[in-house]
């Protein structure tokens, strides 16, 4: 088991190394270079540009820049924001909790509802419920998330005034759980709905596959109640594919969070990313790209290890 | 010989029959075709000139003053603008799909035909790219590269080639290990000939399904990037940047935001339904 853990961990490191290379390539091969935004400023003189280039180490050959950059990364020095000079890692760290909060709530909603709908759909195959759920899932996958968020804001915040139109808390009021939940409803509903669709479809097809297995027939023949058959035998074997789905969904989770945060002005990593794009704040952009990818890689690793834990056949080579 | 010969009933290819059995997929196909036709013949289909500015008629609600879906802040007909915007959005979607499917097929086929190190290397590279949250990658690229239909299609394609690559790799690998390939090799077929005559025709099914779903995702990606302002720039309209435009007038003219979004949803949903139907038509042994 531990050899498998070590092997997967090393693979993860390899992936992160490749990710850093790709990130670096994007950063420096894009036209204009990191200082492009200054080139258009009228009061920037040529010698100032040259001095900035030298100070920021941008006149060194690329491999040297990469090595310096990676060493800095590993030491926790992720650079300073071009916009306000704050350390990138700290800036990302301060935005991270809000994103994690949103993602956790949305994912929990999506998984609980999605799995429930999926199981029901599988059990009552081809019923009206199943048909509606399947079609609904398809439509939910096709909705542009940001537009859906806009519509939710319009309907519930502007027209009905029931929900706040964004942000994480009401300005000026002290922190209250109720206020937080009130602000969470909109974003988590939108993000949750988008995430729900794959979960319900996947659970449904996984359940259908499992329900045809022989051991289900045996369990029924033994005289077990349908509920026990479903929950104790069928569902446990569906768990592993679902865990794999969770791992696959991680990049989508981040992407969806970005979209939702932007429209709802939720102060998380996603909105930070979009804001930094506008400022061409390269250190922050790169830091966010790397950290989100790192989280995805770690998440996948954890999911894989949990799978191996649940099903020993995976790691016995 | 007494029995009369019954004339052979015209035979629909079984795949098509399977597809047509799906009402949603068929409906989706009809809508998709409708959208494509209206995009191609935009000038004929749109009732008014989308660029015609008439300030006296700005912010007309739907079904007023002869505007089917209302008018925007410059008095331009929303419906006509939507039709013309559809042109761009659909073009970017299909172009991005071509980029991603081509790149993915190249990578997947190469990896499957090669063996050992190159195979593992290419597939690991695919895994690496899959770890990036694609929207982060897409936006990072879109913000750095000057936007145009071509560049946007390229960027979207660059963030979506992994799934086709994996798919092609899987299908090709399993095909290559089958007996009829060994037989082809034994009778002296070269790698290229084997690939062309045996592998590719047998792998088109899943690839077509993946390509269809790819178009849907590409349209969504374009709309999001344009909505944020890093995609197609006005005055060239796409559904995405029309939504960006509409935000400022959300309170007074909500129809400017509702309809472009509905169009995106309509296009993407119908294409997704088609993809679903194709999956059942071309790959009936897969999961249901």
Based on CA atoms alone, the radius of gyration of chain B comes out at: 23 Å
SSE series of chain B? HHHHHHHHHHHH
Major sheet of chain B: none
Radius of gyration based on Cα positions of chain A? 24 Å
- Number of distinct beta strands of chain B: 0
Helix/strand-derived category of chain B reads mainly alpha
**Number of helical stretches of at least 4 residues of chain B:** 12
Walk me through what this model shows:
- The complex is a heterodimer of chains A (317) and B (288).
- Chain A has 317 residues and is an all-alpha fold.
- Helices cover 77% and strands 0% of the residues of chain A.
- Chain A is built from 12 helices and no strands.
- The longest helix of chain A is centred in the C-terminal third of the chain and has 39 residues, at 226-264.
- In chain A, 35% of the residues are buried.
What characteristics describe this protein?
heterodimer, A: 317 residues, mainly alpha, MetI-like fold, 77% helix, globular, B: 288 residues, 12 helices, 0% strand
Layout of strands and helices, then pairs:
The complex is a heterodimer of chains A (317) and B (288).
Chain A: H1 2-29, H2 36-39, H3 46-55, H4 62-74, H5 88-123, H6 128-142, H7 145-159, H8 177-211, H9 214-222, H10 226-264, H11 269-279, H12 282-310
Helix pairs in contact in A: 1-12, 5-6, 5-8, 5-10, 5-12, 6-8, 7-8, 7-10, 8-10, 9-10, 10-11, 10-12, 11-12
Chain B: H1 14-21, H2 23-40, H3 42-45, H4 78-113, H5 117-131, H6 134-144, H7 149-158, H8 162-176, H9 179-186, H10 191-228, H11 239-247, H12 255-282
């Amino acid at each position: 088991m531990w050899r498998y853990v070590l092997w997967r961990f090393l693979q993860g490191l390899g992936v992160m190394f490749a990710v850093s290379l790709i990130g670096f390539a994007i950063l420096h091969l894009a036209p204009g270079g990191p200082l492009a935004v200054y080139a258009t400023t009228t009061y920037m003189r040529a010698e100032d540009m040259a001095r900035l280039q030298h100070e920021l180490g941008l006149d060194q050959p690329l491999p040297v820049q990469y090595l310096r950059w990676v060493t800095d990364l590993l030491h926790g020095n992720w650079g300073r924001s071009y916009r306000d000079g704050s350390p990138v890692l700290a800036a990302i760290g301060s935005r991270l909790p809000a994103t994690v909060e949103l993602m956790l709530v949305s994912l929990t909603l999506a998984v609980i509802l999605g799995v429930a709908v999926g199981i029901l759909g599988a059990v009552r195959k081809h019923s009206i419920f199943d048909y509606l759920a399947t079609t609904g899932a398809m439509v939910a996958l096709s909705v542009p998330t940001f537009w859906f968020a806009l519509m939710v804001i319009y309907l519930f915040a502007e027209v009905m005034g029931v929900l706040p139109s964004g942000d994480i808390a009401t300005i000026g009021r002290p922190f209250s759980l109720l206020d937080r939940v009130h602000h969470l409803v909109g974003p988590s509903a939108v993000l949750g709905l988008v995430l729900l669709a794959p979960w319900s479809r996947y659970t449904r097809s996984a359940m259908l596959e499992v329900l045809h297995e022989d051991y289900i027939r045996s369990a029924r023949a033994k005289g077990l109640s349908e509920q026990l058959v479903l929950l104790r035998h069928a569902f446990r074997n569906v768990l592993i594919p679902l865990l794999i789905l969770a791992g696959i969904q991680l990049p989508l989770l981040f992407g969806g969070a970005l979209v939702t945060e932007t429209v709802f002005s939720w102060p998380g990593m996603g909105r930070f990313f979009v804001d930094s794009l506008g400022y061409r704040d390269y250190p922050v952009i790169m830091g966010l790209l790397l950290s989100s990818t790192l989280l995805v890689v770690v998440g996948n690793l954890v999911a894989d290890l949990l799978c191996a834990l649940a099903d020993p056949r995976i790691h016995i080579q | 010989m007494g029995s009369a010969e019954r004339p052979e009933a015209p035979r629909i290819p079984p795949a098509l029959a399977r597809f047509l059995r799906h009402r949603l997929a068929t409906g989706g196909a009809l809508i998709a075709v409708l959208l494509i036709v209206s995009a191609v013949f935009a000038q004929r289909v749109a009732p008014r000139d989308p660029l015609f500015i008439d300030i006296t008629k700005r912010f007309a609600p739907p079904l007023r003053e002869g505007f089917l879906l209302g008018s925007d802040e410059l008095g331009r007909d929303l419906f006509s603008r939507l039709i013309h915007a559809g042109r761009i959005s659909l073009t970017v979607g299909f172009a991005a799909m071509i980029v991603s499917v081509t790149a993915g097929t190249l990578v997947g086929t190469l990896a499957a035909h090669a063996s050992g190190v190159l195979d593992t290397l290419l597939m690991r590279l695919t895994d690496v790219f899959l770890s990036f949250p694609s929207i982060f990658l897409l936006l990072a690229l879109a913000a750095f590269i000057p936007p145009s239909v071509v560049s946007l299609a390229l960027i979207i394609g660059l963030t979506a080639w992994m799934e086709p690559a994996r798919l092609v790799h899987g299908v090709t690998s399993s095909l290559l290990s089958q007996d009829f390939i060994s037989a082809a090799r034994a009778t002296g077929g070269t790698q290229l000939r084997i690939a062309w005559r045996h592998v590719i025709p047998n792998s088109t099914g899943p690839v077509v399904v993946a390509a269809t779903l790819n178009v849907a995702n590409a349209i969504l990606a374009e709309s999001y990037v344009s909505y944020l302002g890093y995609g197609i720039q006005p005055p060239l309209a796409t559904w995405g940047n029309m939504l960006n435009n509409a935000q400022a007038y959300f309170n007074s003219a909500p129809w400017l935001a509702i309809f472009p979004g509905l169009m995106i949803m309509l296009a993407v949903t119908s294409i997704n339904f088609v993809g679903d139907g194709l999956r059942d038509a071309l790959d009936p042994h897969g999961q249901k």
